[in-house]
Design goal:
317 residues; alpha/beta; Nucleotidyltransferase, domain 5; 5-stranded mixed beta sheet; 9 helices; 13 strands; globular
Length: 317
């Protein structure tokens, strides 16, 4: 059987990555442009279509299945993205209409967490599954939910914002306006906040973390310290893991997934974070799900995840 191909586009605030994806999940070609160079959305998307045409020419392809775009605040229903504070072009844009001025192909838009979830099901550790939840840990916490092999989008296309579920009532101020959101505790940013708070509460502490200047204190630094045996860093991950495991267990109660996946920078710390997450997840999971839900780390390669996820979302339509 002849291979088919699709395009995955990952729009970041600094760079945009474009990949030609074969139907078996192999990225056979890549291109990259600086997102922050563009102030006109029309010019920007035209440049992306030129990259797509270039890759198609290189691989002698007459057709592709379509273009999947992973965009900030991407809305799959109306193929728009809007309100992205880290992009030079402001407002709301119908991406499909603009792209189709330059290429007559199907176009699908998604946000990063939904793309990651669908990519995991199509190309990663969720192959063969029809029900899963993805938690992405980065600057914030994103989630993508799949039920019956379909992304859960909700009435507005914005379903799955579990990063903004409140885990500590009246807790930390979140950028969304609420207090105590999951992402204020379990994102890379949240882990950093926990570290700063703990160091302030323990001014005489003399471990690895106390030697790191505040401006260099990151979730990675906490992970490195925890893996070196630093007691305070280990406590930070115990608290983080408890909250994250609790949130993951709660998520299972409304969708009954086959697996809950984790991906993102903090996950790279390994068992110093994952073991507390596993413990909390197991302790807080409703008994009817005890033997049916796995907790897994994403199998998508970090450098490929967004491109593969964006391309995979085409299969959701």
């Amino acid at each position: 059987m002849k291979n088919t191909y699709s395009i995955g586009v990952d729009i970041g605030g600094t760079n945009t990555d474009v990949g030609l994806v074969r139907d078996d999940g192999k990225i056979v070609a890549r291109r990259n442009i600086p997102t922050n160079k563009y102030f006109d959305i029309d010019v920007y998307l035209k440049e992306i279509t030129e990259l797509v045409k270039d890759m198609m020419k290189e691989y002698e392809l007459d057709t592709i299945d379509g273009i999947g775009i992973c965009a900030p605040n991407g809305n799959t229903y109306n193929c728009t993205f809007s309100g992205a504070t880290n992009l030079n072009f402001k407002g709301e844009f119908n991406v499909q209409e603009i792209v189709n001025k330059y290429m007559d192909v199907p176009v699908v838009v998604s946000n990063d967490a939904n793309a990651a979830a669908f990519g995991e099901m199509v190309y990663g550790g969720g192959r063969g599954m029809k029900h899963l939840i993805m938690f992405t840990l980065g600057t914030g916490v994103g989630t993508g939910i799949i039920i019956d092999g379909k992304l859960v989008l909700g009435a507005t296309g914005g379903a799955g914002e579990l990063g903004h579920s409140i885990v500590i009532p009246g807790g930390r101020q979140c950028g969304c306006g609420l207090k105590g959101c999951l992402e204020t505790y379990t994102s890379a940013t949240g882990i950093r906040r926990t570290a700063i708070e703990m160091l302030e509460k323990n001014p005489s502490y003399d471990g690895v973390l106390s030697k790191i200047p505040t401006e260099e204190l990151t979730s990675k630094a906490v992970g490195d310290a925890a893996n070196a045996g630093d007691p305070l860093a280990l406590k930070i991950f115990e608290e983080t893991g408890y909250i994250l495991g609790l949130a993951m267990a709660n998520a299972c109660s409304f969708s009954s997934p086959e697996a809950v996946f984790l991906m993102g920078g903090p996950v790279k710390a390994g068992d110093v974070l994952l073991n507390p997450v596993r413990k909390s997840f197991a302790e807080n999971l409703l008994f009817v799900y005890k033997d049916s839900v796995e907790m897994k780390v994403s199998e998508l390669p970090d450098n490929d995840a967004a491109i593969l996820g964006a391309a995979a979302v085409l299969k959701n339509n």
